[in-house]
Amino acid sequence: MIRLLRTLGHLTVDGIWQVGFATRFLFAMLRHSGPSFARFSLTIRELYFSGVLSLVIIVVSGAFVGMVLGLQGYDTLQRFGSESALGSIVALSLLRELGPVVAALLFASRAGSAVTAEIGLMKATEQLTAMDMMAVNPLARVVAPRFWGGVLSMPLLAAIFSTVGVIGGWFIGVVVIGVDNGTFWSQMANSVDFREDVVNGVIKSFVFGWAVSLIAVFQGYDCTPTAEGVSRAITKTVVYSSLMVLALDFILTSFMYIVK
Amino acid sequence: MTTNPDSADPVVELRGVDAGYGERLILSGIDFSVRRGQLVAVMGGSGSGKTTLLRLVSGQLRARKGSVRVFGESMERISEKELYALRRRMGMLFQFGALFTDLSVFDNVAFPLREHTDLPESMIRDLVLLKLNAVGLRGAATLMPSELSGGMARRVALARSVALDPELIMYDEPFAGLDPISLGVIGQAIRKLNDALGAASILVTHDVVESLAIVDYVYLVSQGKIVAQGTPDEVRASADPFVHQFIHAEADGPVPFHYPAPSIEKSLFLEAEAQP
Q1: I need a surface site. Which of A76, B35, B77, B127 has the fewest CB within 10 A?
Q2: Nearest Cβ partner of B96 from A125, A132, A136?
């Protein structure tokens, strides 16, 4: 019993310490974010690595998710004779939930893990220390541009995911199953509210981008500088980011659509 | 430009310094100084605290006790801004080079110039090629670090560490893994650089022969303490058992080869069998 209490206490203290350290890290990184914007080429490079190189997985996944939505939506709606609402179902599902959430989960797996691995390996091979010794702050030169690259690319990736998903749903609904093309698009246009659905989806993806990018850079910077330490940090990035995205999604959805 | 080391001000001065990591005390009671124009070697076995000494001087580690002064500035309560201002006057060669793997050889050497100067790209190109030429790798400027051997990477790192003509240069095991030709060339390059820049240099190394041939003064470190010091000639002639063992690479002497452990018989459960 005492051992259990001791373990629980240790985990709690360790958890609080980690959160405190991550918060201090966040403020230090924000304080050193000037060069990420003053020398925007540093952030552009990271936008390419985090954003452009994630496009393939985002587009392919968006297409399949949209097609599955088309099939499932049609199957469900036809039971109630409402298959004409397929366009609304596909668009609302993607803009409000699936676009930001699935894109963030994919982003964490593809770009988040890569950022953690890169920073972790730079730490393990003393590249960060070498930079520090050259009077170049690694937080400003390495960490902050990767963070802002992730924060800026995430909403764009979510938007692309949702767009491709809608096209996938249209392909299945209209081209394959035969739902009327005009009905599909007009239903969608009538039911989607710009402020309620589009803007809220963008806000969600921005918050997810912030969370995933922070976890990724923090885990890389804080990892034990060994092969095993880097590998553990990558695993933590994917696990913590996924859980954080789902938890934040619940909180944001509660505030956006329930608590008004 | 050369400076008489004996008359120059100390660039680095440690007095009664204790330092360590977490609970572990690595260095204790260290008195150490390096003057402008002086090339000083810090020698000792693995884990004796040589690299920790460099970390103290470079401000990567704070002393628990005693005083550390670099360029006359106390390192105990130095701010981040002041530390970076000091580091612009330092250069450090890391044990494994620590080259930036996403940059080419040329861009690695150009990195400190681009970060800290407003020089035009044409002048940066000339400076980088001159530095690379000094280490014999001008022809490798377009290669990536993954295409270099360990010795070549070390030479590129040496060129990078002196790109800004620092006043204090620290070398962490610069000779490890170098072939005999590179070793001799790098050794001479370290000496010439120190004299040409009028800098102070600290050379942390295991390589006795090459180091004693180029340095002005030697500190021998064992188990976190400075156990001997002197000019290369004094060290060679020393009758001190530790110095003798280290300089002549003898297995028997005051420095134990084995990390503390129970007897081999006990570890292999042979004690009972050995008894009648």
Answers
A1: B77
A2: A125
